[in-house]
Amino acid sequence: MARVYNFNAGPAVLPLEALQEAQAELIDFKGSGMSILECSHRGKEYDAVHAEAVDNFKKLLGLGDEHAVLFIAGGASLQFAMAPMNLLGSGQTADYVNSGAWALKAIKEAKTVGAVNVAADTGKEIPTRVPSAKELKLTPGAAYVHITSNETIAGAQWKTFPRTDAPLVADMSSDILSRPFDAKSFGLIYAGAQKNLGPSGIALVIVRKDLAERAPAKLPVILQYRTFIEENSLYNTPPTFSIYMMLLVSRWMLKTGPETLYKRNAEKAARIYAVIDAGGFYRGTAVKECRSDMNITFRLPSEALEEQFVKEASQQKMKGLKGHRSVGGIRASVYNAFPVEGVEALVAFMKDFEKKNG
Amino acid sequence: MARVYNFNAGPAVLPLEALQEAQAELIDFKGSGMSILECSHRGKEYDAVHAEAVDNFKKLLGLGDEHAVLFIAGGASLQFAMAPMNLLGSGQTADYVNSGAWALKAIKEAKTVGAVNVAADTGKEIPTRVPSAKELKLTPGAAYVHITSNETIAGAQWKTFPRTDAPLVADMSSDILSRPFDAKSFGLIYAGAQKNLGPSGIALVIVRKDLAERAPAKLPVILQYRTFIEENSLYNTPPTFSIYMMLLVSRWMLKTGPETLYKRNAEKAARIYAVIDAGGFYRGTAVKECRSDMNITFRLPSEALEEQFVKEASQQKMKGLKGHRSVGGIRASVYNAFPVEGVEALVAFMKDFEKKNG
Fold first, then answer.
1. Which of A190, B52, B120, B169 would staple B188 via disulfide (CB 3.0–4.6 Å)?
2. Do the domain assignments include residue B8?
3. How far does Cα B320 stand from its chain's mean position?
4. Neighbours of A316 (CB within 10 A)
């Protein structure tokens, strides 16, 4: 089996041992005589999966009883709507930070629900960056403050989260559980699973239970966080296989040790940024202080060279390095499950490519 | 490998060959060096999966260009909200038929969105049934008429769909593509995939494109059918693995031949109902004219016998026969992928159980 180095931004590389376990038991789950895909969501086999997945993410995020861990079908894009639908009361304003494409999507969706104040806007700046805490123009009495912890496309990341009076809400799709942070200090965190957590089509949602009570009574039941809290994400049939995959990934994280993973992530990113900074050939897309450890974005001297870079890397089994169609350039996504050897291969390739074309 | 006979109502039995194919290529999809779970939703590997899945369901449902085939994360429960959000304008009324637990959930959710007229109500009748077309008290100028083609819990099924002036909307979660029907005559069809189509956490949605234009401009983008139509269900990252599994199931359907499957389904159900009708021991839950070919519900002379029935069947590798917690009794769900041999085993067991306990 020839696994490639998969730099995709998401869906992205998963831990090989999680895939191997899923493969081994795909037709007969734990001797049940059926696939996990065929198990009832009310039966004992799936019950155990669900309960352990909730527990593992609670443990990994260091959460107590104040927050609920939810699994909601639909990715972060549905959360762009659900967050304001649940938390933004009529007559209230929500503060949003625009730091790039994903923040902007969240803002646009929130505006269909209620009043939005853009508290800072670095969305169009090149080099890309997130604002500093002191740049934020916050609304007194805001319903919440929304940030995008890591801009997957721009490659910019909040290194220190702002302290706000209003509850802090974060889209952490592309960097949740990739570094230590204080999850308990957030009002709401949501993350599409397809980067650091599992398959696409599901979001991990962490919500402070008291905030979920804000949802208007007329909101459809299936769009209320309250419903998911009360029914432990089993109000309707959840995406059982996706949660099972997230369980396998969470087990791998606990086994590897989150601190080990976090340290490894920082080192992986540092090695690539070191090549970018070594000469004038590569040019980082993001301001140094905001560089993402998950999505490393950079440009080459010309678009022709960028195209050649992607092509030659692909021939050497490094896939998915093309930057997002909206910004061009190169993007190396190196999530938790991305192996150190893949970073070593990229670093060697970058040096070689620079030597030949610089 | 000892596969059991899986009578689960959903998630439910899948075609063995679909599971085997998924298993074989779970770590290396078509020589790409990555899992289908890891492939980009914008890359050529997944593109081919997505396009073929759309085509196959269009073909299986006999649809032209008037309707769109959509994949939407979240199951039928999200569609209970999305249908009225998109199709029920302010000042309009939607007619809903209450035929049981699932119809009632759809009604409750629609009421959070707009005005609902319950056009007929057989929801609490025992034996269970769906109303006849002539019982419906429809609203002139209604936004649409909503039915539940098959009540999974009650075991009652529409055998002929009503003809209505307003667009007909159907929750077909538990019987879509299990029998011939004229999909083109519907305004909207939605179905949670976890019964006849694939894994849980995703819905197949068929919508007449002109109806999707009704959605109010202020509706969040991710909740508009329009968005999914315009972007071919790729506005955001779709549940790629789920769509891949649905592709494998659709291929199996096309290979087997839908007419063969439909005939087999009718025969499977008829064999079980024949045992129910043969003596006075078993008692069908639904009115004969409305009996579901997918979810065969029946009672035994006592709850103690029902419990014993489920237990002994389980010992003989027949799993998931316990009726839904809300109604009790026995439910044998025999979806497309449920094998004829499993029906033969159940029939033999039922006869034997009656002889011993009748």
1. B169
2. no
3. 17
4. 14
Joined tokens for residue A185: 């200090």
Of A215, A234, A256, the residue at which a domain comes to its end is A256
pLDDT in tens, B30-57: 999 999 999 999 999 999 999 999 999 9
Quote the domain boundaries for residue B156: 17-256
pLDDT value at A351 more than 70: yes
How far A194 CA sits from the closest chain B CA (Å)? 8
Q: Tens of pLDDT along A168-189?
A: 999 999 999 999 999 999 999 9
At B191, which amino acid appears?
Answer: A
CB-based contact A200:B239 (threshold 8 Å)? yes
The residue from A220, A238, A256 where one domain ends is A256
Residue A338 is part of a domain; what is its CATH number?
Answer: 3.90.1150.10
Q: Does the structure's ipTM exceed the value 0.85?
A: yes
Q: Is the residue at B351 inside a domain? A: yes
β-strands A5-6, B156-157 pairing: unpaired
Contact status, residue B26 vs residue A244, Cβ threshold 8 Å = no
Contact with chain A for residue B7, Cβ under 8 A: no
Q: From CA A259, how far away is CA A335, in angstroms rounded?
A: 14
pTM: 0.98
Domain count, chain B: 2
- The catalytic residue among A95, A171, A175, A293 is A171
